[in-house]
Structures
1.
Amino acid sequence: MGKGKDLFGHYNDLAKEKGPGTAECTYASVLFQALLMLGERKVFEMLEEAEQTGKHLALDYSENRDGVPRGVVLV
């Protein structure tokens, strides 16, 4: 889980460096929302898997019309 935690920190550092409105900041926001929804362990595991597979985490709004994410997926 150490690598996932490091990745989380890395993406947050990039967001701070690049600033609001950037892709890096948007992704850091997705990661924070995922953290609130799933907890540290699951998010860190998903970040490690994303790193290994060349994917990234995204909020899943499928079949949901109220604007609230249903979950977190790798895309």
2.
Amino acid sequence: MPARPVLVPEGAPCLEDFLSGRPDDRLRDLLAFALAVEAGPPMDRAALQARAEAELEALAFRRLHNQVETIRLEAAREQILRLRGPGLPRLILGNLIALGLVAGVVAVLRQQGLLAAWGL
């Protein structure tokens, strides 16, 4: 099927007028062209390129800020997980071991008669 012809309105901007030829500025040039198409006929190429540059910088700053915030939240989450206490099962096990050790020491002291002086 043949492609439909594209109808270009009178006074519409031409893409070649916006392309600077520098690869680093291609995205800015394309955005300036899109802004020119959106704005309609009275257009100032330099002003549209400046606006496109400003919008790209604002977008880059927002993305960087969001990425930094994501990294910061992940780091805080990891730190909180590291700082968590031993948990209830470990506390109970530790207390049982401590009670067993105390009972063992008392049994040894009682067997040797060292607790009789204290009446135990």
